[in-house]
């Protein structure tokens, strides 16, 4: 971490302007060194994305009828190089609230997403199942066109499946940012996308239409309505908690494209997921007029 410079100390025969010039030269050198380090690690300015702000943390709360079920928290951990590819490291926590009948779910998900197109390079999740933790690892080998899925308990692999890769895929975490970036680059135009996604050992797609309607959305995170764009789509598989089929949602109508609300179908009916809190540097949600 760079520390704040101490105050100038007067040196006989050296003017304040000279000291200032020296400080500027040193600062420029440090910035150049940082830029060189980024480039040699595989990063370039062209791969920077405003949506992908390191240390962003977004928490949603899920409800079924009048019952609050639990939370889903997304964290963007930062930049790294994954198998030689500039990437973003993303983490998510899914936790059901205690006392909810028939629901006791606690899991951690972590994904390495390609910085170029936000598709998945590798991912894992670890879930509590009774008194043990079960881990699933996914390795996307796009060169060999093979997706390897392994399930392990206490470090011992108990299941392994290899599947062909016919295209690049998102997963639950990279999809969250993929959609935001698609909305940001759409210039507000209505557009329908077919997004490949992997869930457990199922390779499928989500059909998504963005910028359907401009309006406003109310969420628990703020005490005022937020200017938003509506989107809708169809989940063409059955995911966690039986989420499947048609869904609707709202996303903030600004350059951050923060998801605000989603109405999802599950086996027993529908659930509503709303933004509960967000930590993002310098973000002011667009207040609806």
Number of helices: 2
What structural class results from the helix and strand content? mainly beta
How large, in whole angstroms, is the Cα Rg? 22 Å
Q: Beta-sheet strand percentage?
A: over 45%
Helix/strand order: HEEEEEEEEHEEEEEE
What features would you describe in this structure?
The protein is mostly beta strands and 289 residues long. The protein is 13% helix and 50% strand. It has two domains: 16-44; 48-279. It contains two helices and 14 strands. A 14-stranded antiparallel beta sheet has the order 8-7-6-5-4-3-2-1-14-13-12-11-10-9, covered by helices on one side. The model is unreliable at 1-43 (pLDDT under 50).
Secondary structure elements and their pairing?
Layout: H1 16-40, E1 57-64, E2 67-82, E3 85-96, E4 106-114, E5 120-129, E6 132-141, E7 146-153, E8 156-164, H2 172-184, E9 191-199, E10 202-217, E11 226-235, E12 244-252, E13 259-266, E14 269-279
Antiparallel strand pairs: 1-2, 1-14, 2-3, 3-4, 4-5, 5-6, 6-7, 7-8, 9-10, 10-11, 11-12, 12-13, 13-14
Keywords:
disordered N terminus, globular, mainly beta, 14-stranded antiparallel β-sheet, 289 residues, 2 helices
Short description:
With 289 residues, the protein is mostly beta strands.
